[in-house]
Specification:
Layout (H helix, E strand, L loop, with lengths): L12 H12 L34 H10 L8 E2 L6 E3 L6 E2 L43 H4 L11 E4 L10 E5 L5 E5 L6 H10 L3 E6 L5 H12 L6 E2 L2 E3 L4 H7 L4 H11 L7 E3 L5 E4 L2 E5 L10 H4 L4 E5 L2 E5 L5 H11 L1 H4 L3 E3 L10 H7 L3 E4 L3 H4 L8 H10 L4 E4 L5 E3 L1
Parallel strand pairs: 2-11, 6-7, 7-8, 7-9, 9-10, 14-15, 15-16, 16-17
Antiparallel strand pairs: 1-3, 4-5, 4-18, 5-6, 11-12, 12-13, 13-14
Length: 412
């Protein structure tokens, strides 16, 4: 869940109606140039917060939504056999049966044969961190340049264009194709688009952890603007029904419902719902989906996120999104410590109030990626749990720490 210092999402029944009206009564198609995606346009842009465009929505539109009972969910073309690798950009032949809502809280053991073995709290909660500050010198502060470890590929953690926490990564394969993870806030959209364009503009796989504004706002903006000058082969995600977000994730329901509505207007071959142990191949990069979408009793929006593990040049990279403590315990129980082991880990929930110490011990990384702005890194006000997480990581040894506060961070 996003935490900013002074601003919060406006939520409640009214905003639910407004968003549903805006998305579901949008245009079925728009005139687009050859470089644009043909999408269902919303009548307003949601970046981090509700914009003034919402006020222009009419009561008639709200009533129409109530009468039709539409949900705006997408029926996406998906890989029906999650045990086999899926090559990014490859068309799939079967249509998912309401896939956006079928990756729920299953207790069944979904272990599949395609597992990679190479190299074998809620947003409203305020918890006081430890009084003793743990000092960590980041790679950015050292001015260090990473030794080449990814075999010609590069991993870049994109810096926030605002003071908010966010999460945005670009992986460029050794062949020059791109994998994007989340993307950040709407305010980060233009910068992210420019970074994609500078790298050739071909996004083979866009991975979404969960539909919170500080993770998918940039993607939403890029899609609303027609994805000018870039090619997106596949968007990979696991979402609930829109109603789930209005009930269980109210502070982020606007972004979730808006993105679900926008995705429903994309060509079906671009939409790739995912589930546990599905494999995605992009050039020489192999991506494993680590979990099914959890619906737990606490920190529901964050714990419903997807976790991805990449294998690049025998280096394992674990993307945790905003996975919380309960989600981390569930994932550790589901897959075991050996499967979580990774050389590089993205720190859960921006390094505070995410997975617990036991989880990070299982991962046992050598490199930590912190999508964390300065105020959160410094635990300003001592109300964040960043210092607690730093203490855990120092116990694991002399690790390298790349932090978003230091600007765009690249590992080669």
């Amino acid at each position: 869940m996003r935490k900013t210092r002074d601003r919060r999402w406006f939520s409640g029944t009214l905003v639910t109606g407004l968003v549903m009206a805006a998305v579901l009564t949008g245009h079925p198609g728009i005139e687009a140039e050859d470089t644009s995606l043909l999408i269902r346009k919303a009548d307003f842009h949601v970046t981090e917060h509700i914009t003034e465009g919402v006020t222009a929505l009419t009561q008639e539109m709200i009533q129409q939504t109530a009468l039709t009972g539409s949900t705006g969910t997408s029926n996406a073309t998906a890989d029906s056999d999650n045990k086999n690798a899926l090559t990014a950009g490859q068309d799939t032949s079967q249509t998912a049966n309401n896939q956006s809502g079928t990756n729920g809280n299953t207790e069944a053991d979904n272990t599949a044969t395609g597992t990679i073995t190479a190299g074998s709290g809620s947003a409203k909660e305020v918890r006081t961190g430890p009084s003793v500050m743990t000092a960590i010198m980041t790679e950015g502060e050292k001015g260090a340049v990473s030794d080449p470890i990814l075999g010609g590929a590069t991993l870049t953690m994109i810096n926030s264009q605002t003071e908010s926490q966010m999460l945005s990564f670009i992986v460029e394969t050794s062949q020059g194709n791109l994998i994007v993870v989340d993307g950040g806030l709407g305010e980060d959209g233009d910068y992210l688009l420019s970074q994609i364009q500078q790298r050739g503009g071909h996004v083979s796989a866009w991975l979404i952890t969960h539909p919170h504004g500080d993770h998918v706002g940039a993607l939403y903006k890029i899609l609303q603007d027609g994805a000018q000058g870039i090619q997106i082969d596949g968007i990979y995600y696991a979402f609930g029904e829109p109603e789930w977000y209005t009930i269980h994730d109210q502070e982020e329901q606007t972004m979730a419902v808006s993105l679900i509505g926008t995705l429903s207007g994309l060509p079906p071959e671009i939409l790739r719902p995912v589930s546990r142990n599905q494999l995605i191949q992009v050039d020489d990069v192999l991506i494993q989906v680590m979990n099914d979408r959890y619906e737990l009793s606490e920190d529901k929006g964050n714990n419903a996120g997807m976790v991805y593990k990449m294998l690049i040049n025998d280096k394992k990279i674990l993307f945790l999104g905003d996975l919380g403590e309960a989600g981390g315990k569930r994932l550790l129980a589901d897959v075991g410590a050996e499967q979580l082991q990774a050389d590089i880990v993205q720190m859960a929930h921006h390094g505070q109030n995410g997975v617990d110490e036991e989880f990070y011990r299982a991962v046992n990384p050598g490199i930590c990626l912190w999508p964390t702005p300065t105020w959160l890194w410094n635990s300003e006000g001592n109300r964040w749990r960043t210092q607690e997480t730093k203490t855990w990581m120092t116990k694991l040894g002399d690790l390298k720490h790349y932090v978003m506060k230091d600007g765009d961070q690249m590992i080669r």
